[in-house]
Amino acid sequence: MNRLLVAFLAAALSLVAQAQAPQPPEIAARNYLLIDVTARQVLAERDADTAQDPAALTKLMTAYVVFSALREKKLNLEQTLPVSKRAWDERKGEPSLMFLDTTMTPKVDELLRGMIIQSGNDASVALAEGVAGTVENFVQLMNRQALAWGLKNTEFKNVTGTAEPGHKSSARDLSVIATRIIRDFPEYYGYYSQRDYTYNKIRQDNRNLLLRRDPTVDGMQTGYGEAAGYGLIASSQRDFPNGKRRLLSVVMGTASKEARASESQKLLNWGYTAFDAVKVFDADKVISTVPVWKGEQREAKLGAGDAVYVTVAKGDAGKLQTQVERTDPLVAPLTKGQRVGTIKVMTTAGAPVAEVPLVVLDAVPQSGLMGRAWDSLRLWIK
């Protein structure tokens, strides 16, 4: 299912919620993107595929690779790491610091808080060296992950977001990284909601101003550079009668810390008020039961696997229809989660809203030799 999710995210983030979607407010940012994470739909965007300097928004991918190393048990949260001279050298003219020095041996948990809450470049370097031995090796892991996700406008040259020729990403690519953190590592996502952190008696506030202004905002990352301007990726989850909805906004190239916060808030509020989320199918709901050839069972149960939400303009919830397209014939063995078609969600007028993979809900093993031979003959006659 993980590979399906990657492909689905990449495709779904390029879809607009509806042919005639509500018009977004005027946003004072060079680039922006608003997505409904729950429905996996784009609600609004401007120049979201333009490659540019991401500044410290880079640290989202740095964190993702560290979280992956934790899951793979290459290190653990209580493990201590040395602070190299290279990490210490980040102090030179750089305000984004955890204020480490080479006499310290911070824990991985402390370094993560220093990188995520304090945006510490020194913490980022220490983590990269702890995971991969060198920063250069770690950057290769970052780019390898970006390539695996199909991020065409992203290339990393460092782990901090320091301006460097060729170091680039786009609003859409950054939204994929942020969304993957939320979906793949819920156990670590809580770092992004912490409002402040004190290390070595130095207290620093999280630079995401929305954490103090909007109780539904629980992350994620700020960035600033002379060329990049001020950027913010903000994630918010609110409760609605049909369940929780999570929206994620990306603004890049705003004029100030205040502007990136206010423009992000404007996008989030508009997304929640201008659209309704509709649950089309429950998780693991059987959408169709179809014949299977050469299988131990004669039929397969098909569905979407996960719950399916779509987002439509407010008032249009009753104007939806679904269409199932599948690859026939279905021949065993079939594995759970195997994609065998597409579920299309459309308006009654035929405008596309979303496409969801149609998958096998329960595995169907291959039948014995005689059963396979008999079905082969039947398929040949058919």
Automatic annotation (TrEMBL):
Instruction: Tell me the superkingdom of the source.
Output: Bacteria
Q: Where is the Peptidase S11 D-Ala-D-Ala carboxypeptidase A C-terminal domain?
A: 275-366
The protein's matches in InterPro entries, at most eight in alphabetical order, are given as: Beta-lactam/transpept-like (IPR012338), Peniciliin-bd_prot_C_sf (IPR015956), Peptidase_S11 (IPR018044), Peptidase_S11_C (IPR012907), Peptidase_S11_C_sf (IPR037167), Peptidase_S11_N (IPR001967)
Reactions this protein catalyses = Preferential cleavage: (Ac)2-L-Lys-D-Ala-|-D-Ala. Also transpeptidation of peptidyl-alanyl moieties that are N-acyl substituents of D-alanine
Query: Record keywords: Cell wall biogenesis/degradation included?
Result: yes
Give the enzyme's EC designation: 3.4.16.4
* Matching SUPFAM superfamilies: beta-lactamase/transpeptidase-like, Penicillin-binding protein associated domain
What GO MF terms are annotated? carboxypeptidase activity
Q: What class of enzyme is it?
A: hydrolase
The alphabetical list of record keywords is:
Carboxypeptidase, Cell shape, Cell wall biogenesis/degradation, Hydrolase, Peptidoglycan synthesis, Protease, Signal
Residues spanning the signal sequence? 1-19
Q: Answer whether the UniProt record assigns the keyword Signal to this protein.
A: yes
Spell out the family assignment given in the record's similarity comment: Belongs to the peptidase S11 family.
Stated name of the protein: serine-type D-Ala-D-Ala carboxypeptidase
